[in-house]
Amino acid sequence: MLALPDGVRPVPSRMKLALFNMLGDRIADAAVLDLFSGTGSLGIEAASRGAARAVLIEKDPCIAETLEENVRRAGVDDRCTVLCADAYLTPEAVKGVDEPFDVVFLDPPYVQSEDAGCVSRLGRILDGLAGNGLLRPDTAVILHVRADAFTTGQLPEQMEAADVRRYGSGTLMICRLRKNTCNKPEAPGRIAESSVEED
Questions:
Q1: Cβ atoms 126, 162 nearer than 8 A
Q2: What pLDDT is recorded for position 185?
Q3: Is 116 helix (H, G, I), strand (E, B) or coil?
Q4: pLDDT truncated to tens, each residue of the chain (199 aa)?
Q5: 166, 169, 170: which is closest to 194 by C-alpha?
Q6: For residues 181 and 168, what is the distance between their CA atoms, to the nearest angstrom?
Q7: How far apart are CA 174 and CA 191, in angstroms?
Q8: Pairing state between β 170-177 and 159-167
Q9: How far apart are the C-alpha atoms of 158 and 187, rounded to whole Å?
């Protein structure tokens, strides 16, 4: 059981289970980036499922301290790195990372995902990820925001949504680089394109 700092909204269990079922074998031996990490629910789950390494970004020092405790509790501290940094400053926040990521989680606080300025900055994060060598051609970028706060039309032009699902008040969007920006074929077991709404 992860420690839950005040004011942190964990990803609902049903949504998390559905997400990792969608990701399937992509997690094994993957390099994972968890932005707005909070409790570390997504990054720690990925490490527990066999990710080779996970970088967890959390801006609030007190929450980052709890996050480090959660990593130790889960027994994945050998594969997880916690950075106290501003996710909105990606890619600066992950300077020194030598290789691109295979899976990226982007789960900003709902109160921020409703703010127009923050929504614009989310777009800039995605643009920065796509334009700074942090993504592979088949990287899965998972965005969790309040429903209708961020639409597929707000993705940077080099990215597209492969899967969009709605869970209650939240939307789960799985994005990838557009094929015309890739120089390698997609990995086997890629996520199929779909758009569904779940209660």
A1: no
A2: 35
A3: helix
A4: 666 666 566 777 888 998 999 999 999 999 999 999 989 999 999 999 999 999 999 999 999 999 999 999 999 999 999 999 988 877 777 776 767 999 999 988 765 555 566 667 788 888 888 888 889 999 999 998 887 777 888 888 888 999 998 888 788 889 999 876 543 434 434 444 444 455 4
A5: 166
A6: 33
A7: 8
A8: antiparallel
A9: 18
**Domains (ranges, CATH) in the chain?**
13-182 (3.40.50.150)
DSSP secondary structure, 10-79, as one string:
PPPHHHHHHHHHHHGGGGTT-EEEEES-TT-HHHHHHHHTT-SEEEEEES-HHHHHHHHHHHHHHT-TTT
Is 41 in contact with 12 (CB distance < 8 Å)? no
Contact 41, 2 (CB under 8 A): yes
Question: What does the block give as tokens for 30?
Answer: 């993957």
The answer to whether the CB of 27 falls within 8 A of the CB of 56 is: no
